[in-house]
Structure formats: C-alpha cells, structure tokens
Design a protein that fits this description.
This protein is mainly α. The protein contains 18 helices and no strands. The longest helix has 36 residues. The two termini are 15 Å apart.
C-alpha cells in the first residue's frame, strides 16, 4: 500500500511522524526569518541609508522570488520527486541566509534575498505535498493544523527574538541564526525522511509556461512599486498581456506547469485559492506597518516593538491546531469564512490608529487579528489539499504557497503604492510622520475592504465533504 493512499490505511506511521516534524521545523524556520526581519527594517534602513520604497523591497524582493518559483518547483517536484526538491530548497535557503548576513551593500543584500527566496520556494512547493502524501484523509487536517501552528510559532517568536537579536547583536545576527537552524534541518531531512513520497513522472517540464508565469508576477509587482509613473502603468499592462498568454498556453499543452483544469473542475479548489489570495493580500503587510509605526511614531526600540507584535502570531499558533481538527469534522468553508470575518474586524480597528493610540488598543487588535487568521488558514488549506487528486499534490501545495506569496506580494505592493502616493521617495523622518500615519491608516482601510470580498469568496466555494466522500468511495471500489 502506498504511503499517499487517500484512504489512509497504508504507510509507515513512524515515517509519517518523521515527515510531520521535519516539515514542521521548516514551517517554523522560514516564517521566523520573515517576521524577525520586519522588526529589523528601521535598523537596516539606517545602516544602508535607504528610502521607504527601497526599504519595502527588502521584504518584497524575497516574496517576489518565492512567488515566481513556487509553482515551477511544485511541478518539478511532481515530476522528479518531492523529497529531492524539498532537501535542495533547505540547502539553498541556508547558504543564501549566510550571504545575507555578509552583505556590505543594499544591492548585494537584495540579491541574496532573491536567491534565499528561491530556496524558500522549493520548500513551500513541497512541504504541504509531503504532509498530504504521508497522512490519510481523516488525519490530514490535524497534521496540517500542527504544521500551521509551527508556522505561526515562528511568526510569534520572530518579532520578539528578532528584536532582541537586533537590539543586542545587530540585524545580521538574524540571518546567522537562520543559517545555523537551516543547516540543522537540512541534515535532519537527509537523515530522517526515508521515502520519496512520490513516484517520478515521465511528463515534461513546461519551460515556456514558467517564463510567462514569472514575467507576469515580476512585471506586476515592479509596476506597483513604480506607480503613479508611466513606467509603472506600462509594466502592469505588460503583466496583463503576459497573464493572458500564460493562461492560453497552459490550456493548450499536455503537461502544463499549472493545471488550469483544477480551477474549472473543482469549485472548492478555485474559491479556496481565491480566498487565500485575498486573505494574505489583506494581512501580510500588517506586521511591517505596525513595526514601523511602533518604532517611528511610538519611539519604541526593536526589542519592545517585537514584544508587542508577538501577540498576533502567538494567538495564531495556539488556535490553528484547534481549527485544523474542527475542519476534519465541520465544513471548512464555514470555519474559514468566520475566520475571515474576524480578521476583517481586527484590521478595521487598526485603520483608526493615531499617534496617541494606546499600546493596549494595538495589542487587542492584534489578538483579534490572530484569532481570525488561525480559524481561516488551517481549514482553508485543508479544503485546497483535499479537493485534488493525489497526482496533483505538488501543484496544489505549490498553489497554496503561491496564493500566499502573491497575496503577500500584493499586500506589499499596495503599501508601497500608498507610500509613493502619500510620502514620495523619502526616508521616514519626523518631518514626514503625519503623512506616514495617513499612509498606514489608508493601507488598513484598503485591507479591511479586501476582507469583505474574501468572505464572499470563502462562502462561494461550496461543500467539500460530499466531494471527498464520493472520491473515497471510488477509491474503495
């Protein structure tokens, strides 16, 4: 019996636990880096003497790289093996984390961030596929919930430990700690993951589709960052053309990099992916905006700011396993839609920030936001991964990560657009604090509107249980 048997009767339970803990450690590591670096951005900006737009590119360059390469690596994992791509990704992530810590200029640093993002894309494209392959349907939500809990644990400790490391040893210590942890996970994955968990495919890799897909994303986010200049408009127009060409190409070839039919054949997959895109578009930049607000407007140091930002991911880490287990018993769309609604309330409360806003108000908003995020993410991921055939686990895993990355990229793109319109290309100094506060509030208002749209997308996905039951019955027969 194969380990990825959807009935869950096959496979070595020891190997399942091994896969779970290795994936969980990577789920902790990468978000830990992402959230910790947000706290260090003001310090990095001072060292390299860069404006707010270029400061935003420290996070955006990494996210853009992840978004461009996640789907291609998900497809490569389905063709050549998920364990191979996963292990190579950890290695790349570790090496380029070290290079980030050795950067002497902002452009060398940004280049290293791009390469670090490629390694992360390999991990994102395969981690959920490994878990879904290893665990049977009736245990999948619990396993995914544990993985998501580790993700949010990394996000929880990131601001606190990142602020602590930055305050006492400088921002480079964040990347050095990631180098050490990455090396540990790399050797652990080589040693402990014994099975490939997928069978090599004879299908060809779609290079043309990969290029068109990358061109779509790169031109879109670069266009966002350049608006309202004419070059930004031209790049967004180019992105639209590239997207049309990509969708046309993918619908006509035998082995596409992204199986468009997954969206047309499965309403659950399509609307769950859309809901994930909207959710991450409306939430990712929250930590960045609050980190800058707390340090520039409230005058807090990185350590104290990180201690406040820890509340959101801490709540997410506590409640994600609970939400994951609930999604094994209750329709995921109901839990996820409730989570999206609560997220919207938390973001709307942040749109009322002023320089006189109390820290207790900010903490309460973060707690509400974290609760909503927890009850959206695990059930929504469970719905996506359980709505596709096992042949497409790599693509579906890549799609979950891609929706997250594109959403995060759009979130940062919207923030950079608002900064550009409200502040221009200026460093964040006391002279521009009033326009900075307006930029923060405007961004949160946009995000709260997106959450309302996300609620409708989440509810529109339809029922998962009847589809899964029919699929399991067919396998049984």
């Amino acid at each position: 019996m194969r380990l990825d048997d959807p009935r869950g009767t096959g496979g070595n339970p020891y190997n399942r636990r091994t896969v779970l803990w290795v994936v969980a450690l990577t789920s902790f590591l990468i978000p830990f880096m992402a959230s910790s670096i947000n706290v260090a951005l003001p310090t990095i900006g001072k060292e390299f003497k860069i404006d707010a737009i270029l400061l935003g590119w420290i996070a955006t360059s990494y996210i853009l790289s992840c978004a461009v390469f996640t789907v291609p690596f998900g497809r490569l994992a389905d063709i050549y093996g998920r364990k191979k791509i996963f292990t190579l990704g950890i290695l790349c992530y570790t090496v380029f984390s070290l290079l980030c810590s050795l950067s002497t200029s902002i452009y060398f640093f940004l280049s290293s961030r791009v390469l670090q993002g490629i390694g992360s894309a390999m991990v994102f494209a395969t981690s959920l596929a490994l878990l879904t392959s290893a665990f049977p349907l009736h245990e999948r939500g619990k396993a995914l919930g544990i993985s998501v809990a580790f993700t949010y644990s990394g996000m929880s400790l990131g601001p606190f430990l990142g602020g602590f490391l930055t305050h006492y040893w400088g921002w480079r210590s964040i990347f050095l700690s990631n180098t050490f942890l990455g090396a540990l996970v790399f050797f652990l994955s080589l040693w402990k993951i014994r099975d490939e968990l997928s069978e090599p495919s004879k299908e060809r890799f779609d290079f043309v589709g990969a290029v068109l897909y990358g061109l779509t994303l790169v031109s879109m986010i670069c266009g966002f960052s350049l608006l309202p200049e004419s070059a930004g408009v031209r790049l967004i127009f180019l992105s639209g053309i590239a997207m049309i060409l990509f969708l046309t190409w993918e619908s006509r070839i035998a082995s596409p990099i992204l199986n468009i039919g997954l969206f047309s054949r499965s309403k659950v997959f399509a609307f769950s992916s859309l809901a994930a895109l909207i959710h991450y578009s409306s939430t990712f930049a929250v930590t960045l905006l609050l980190s800058l607000f707390l340090q520039y407007i409230k005058g807090l140091n990185p350590r104290v700011a990180g201690s406040i930002l820890i509340f959101q991911p801490l709540i997410m880490a506590i409640f994600s396993p609970i939400a994951g287990r609930l999604s094994d018993r209750i329709e995921p769309r109901l839990i996820a839609s409730a989570g999206m609604s609560i997220t919207g309330i938390g973001i709307l409360s942040l749109s009322l920030l002023e320089d006189s806003t109390s820290l207790n108000y900010i903490i309460t908003s973060l707690v509400v936001l974290g609760f909503g995020f927890a009850f959206f993410s695990s059930p929504n991921t469970n719905a996506i991964m359980s709505s596709v055939d096992k042949r497409y686990y790599g693509v579906a895993s890549g799609m979950v990560a891609t929706m997250r990355m594109i959403g995060q990229m759009l979130s940062m793109g919207l923030v950079m657009l608002v900064f550009s319109l409200k502040m221009g290309k200026a460093q964040i100094t006391p002279d521009v604090y009033p326009s900075f506060i307006v930029s923060v509030k405007t961004s949160f208002r946009i995000f709260s509107v997106l959450c309302v749209l996300g609620i409708f997308a989440s509810l529109a996905r339809g029922r998962l249980r009847s589809k899964v039951s029919n699929s399991a019955d067919m396998v049984e027969k």
